[in-house]
Amino acid sequence: MKRCQGCFKVSILEALGDDILLRILDNINDTGDRNSWSLVCKQFYRLESNCKRKIQLLRGEMLPRILQRYRAVEHLDLSLCPQISDRCLGLVAAVSGPRLRSIDLSRLVRISHLGLSVLAKGCENLVEIDVSYCERFGDMEAAAVSNAKNLQTLKLVRCQMVSDLGLGWIAVGCGKLQDLNLKWCVGVSDLGVELVAIKCKELKSLDVSYLQITNKCIASITQLSYLETFISVGCVCVDDKGLTLLKNGCKSLQRLDVSKCQSMSSTGIISLASGCIALRQLSLAYCVPVTNALLSSFDKYDSLQSIRFDGCEISRSGLKSIGKSCKSLRELSLSKCIGVTDEGISALVEGCRGLKMLDITCCRDLTDVAITAVATSCGDVSCLKMESCSLVTEISLNMLGDRCPFLEVLDLTDCSVSNTGLKSISRCTGLTTLKLGLCENISNEGLIYIGAHCSNLQELDLYRSVGIGDTGLAALASGCPKLRIVNLSYCIGITDHGLKSLAQLEKLYTLEIRGCFLVTSAGLSAIALGCKRLVELDIKRCYRVDDTGIVTVAQCCINLRQINVSYCPISDAGLLALVNLSCLQNVNLVHLRNVSLDAFAFVLLACASLKKIKLLKQLKSLLPSNLIKQAENKGCRFRWVQKPLFI
To answer: How many helices (H) and strands (E) does the chain have?
Structure first.
């Protein structure tokens, strides 16, 4: 702005000051928008660099530059960069040092005890480490992690090389642990868990799912005065005696998951009610018989808010008992339960009027009576999953549209939904997730209703909904700009015109169009040019998509991490274009008849970020074994399949 003579020029941005600009930045939630904001000027760049606290890295080679720019980073996610090595961890320790609070190293295979030791010692304020699915993480690596003396959260999911010895190192060195996840750490036994319980007195959450532990270690766990969450899914050697031990201790327990614990009985669960009175979440999926006596015991849990009975058999009187006993219930999952009837659901919701989440997936005997009861009694419901409830009609959907204004997640997969039903559902204007897979009776007319009213929609599944076409997609693209996940697989009426409409969805993250036979490279190119934030793409059996479309995707969608091009008529040129995608991690390359063996080999050699690749089994003997081994050493897992060309 111009000033009188003798005065200097002051820009509007400078006049605002850093404090106001930072408040503006705090209100920009989208990552892409924040990045664009930082490129406006040097001042914006500096402010964004100084205030960013959390980073998820997509390209490992960018680590040095990222660490130099973002000096205030506290939370670092490196899980998407398989090339991360011990040297990289040393760099993190040297640059970030005491500032770093948490780091995600899950699924990395090139890190060892050497890098982890440097990281733990150099980043003395680390409170969270995730090394889940690190196949080479063993006892030496556990000993290195034990140097993180201030660690509070440690995730070791499926670290199968860790034994009681390694866990003992962690127990001794990390006495401040509050959250420990040992799911699928099959090398750990009672001894290791006991050591943790003895040494880590501040534990609040413990997951020992699928470990071969017995009642022996439960006695030690009950001595944890602050334990709030105990998850023991699939611990088949823990029985009612173990539950009795829990009842006598763990007075602070709020969440208990004993799903798939086949050695337990309803008697053991009932015994808990006299001790675990603070319980808020209980999961008994695929576990004990749900008897009336068991359900009657729930009236002792004044604060019980969430129950999962998935895969269990439950009677009408049982559901009625829940309605009487669990007045505070907010979430109930009855997925694949046997015996769920209209009468039972009606009695349930009559008592549980505060229910917000209900899962009745595959409860095939339910009709409009049950859904009408839910809509009438539970007007605040926000999540309703009713996949394969095929007896439900428009009557139910009309009631949901009228009575459930806060509905956000609705799963109608494989239900008898028509356009009239979608018109009713569109009155739920807060919908963010809508699943309409296998709904063959809906068409463009129904999607036009959704597009006109559900502007907050972020995820839409239309898998095999063969009646929809380009006009419906145009309405969705125009009315639902927040869409991030779209599944159009086997929607055989979709053409390039429909994809060109979807191309205006700038926030599109995942797109599945497998089996859309009319789609060509022109439609795919439009998607690539318009949806540059695309991360996952499935074009399997798109028989008219050739190299042109793939090359455009490779040029425009630089953050693409997963792609399925199986059965597509691409040649070497199309496949080799994918090499330029530095973030690419998961590729399916089955039955690419026009691709040479040399092209397959070059992809394995050049794609340093690959984590998973699916190939025909015949190629295993044709590709050089040393090349396959080299890819595996870089962290790539092969899935060799034997599939026919035509199904």
So the answer is: 26, 24
C-alpha span between 276 and 279 (Å, rounded): 6
Task: Give the angle 269-185-180 at the CA atoms, nearest 5°.
Answer: 70
Tokens 């939630």 — which residue?
A: 29
Euclidean distance between CA atoms 481 and 246, whole angstroms: 50
Helix 316-325 vs helix 342-351: crossing angle, to nearest 10:
10
Does residue 214 register a pLDDT over 90?
Answer: yes
pLDDT at residue 3, as a whole number = 45
Strand partners, 276: none
What are residue 210's phi and psi, to 5 degrees? 65, 20
CA distance 414 to 361: 10
Q: What 3-state DSSP class applies to 231?
A: strand
- Burial group, residue 237, by CB count within 10 angstroms (0-12, 13-18, 19+): middle
In angstroms, the Cα distances linking 71 to 14, 19, 98, 130, 410 are 23, 19, 11, 22, 42
Asked if residue 336 lies in contact with residue 311, where contact means CB atoms within 8 angstroms, the answer is yes
Q: How far apart are CA 82 and CA 582, in angstroms?
A: 11
Residue with structure tokens 């859309």?
516
- 579 and 555 Cβ atoms separated by less than 8 Å: no
On the question of pLDDT at 233 being above 80, the answer is: yes
The yes-or-no verdict on residue 37 having pLDDT over 80 is: no
Question: Which residues is 410 bridged to in the sheet?
Answer: 384, 434
Q: pLDDT-based confidence at 250, cuts 50/70/90?
A: confident
Say if residues 288 and 262 touch (Cβ distance below 8 Å). Answer: no
Conformation bin of residue 515: beta by default, left when phi > 0, alpha when psi is -120 to 50: left
Three-state DSSP class for residue 435 = strand
Q: Which domains does the chain have, with CATH numbers?
A: 15-51 (1.20.1280), 528-647 (3.80.10.10)
Of the given ranges (49-58, 116-125, 538-547, 620-629), which has the lowest mean pLDDT?
Answer: 49-58
How far apart CA 492 and CA 544 sit, in angstroms, is 13
How distant, in Å, are the alpha carbons of 268, 307, 317, 367 from that of 338?
22, 16, 13, 15
The yes-or-no verdict on residue 316 having pLDDT over 60 is yes
Q: CA–CA separation, 103 vs 117, rounded Å?
A: 14
Asked if pLDDT for residue 8 goes beyond 70, the answer is: no
Coil, strand or helix at 221: helix
Contacts of residue 27, Cβ cutoff 8 Å, sequence gap at least 6: none
Indicate the Cα dihedral angle 162, 168, 173, 177, nearest 10°.
80
Distance between CA atoms of 22 and 25, rounded to whole angstroms?
5
**pLDDT value at 595 more than 50:** yes
- The rounded mean pLDDT for the chain is 92
Give the residue carrying structure tokens 């992690």.
Answer: 145
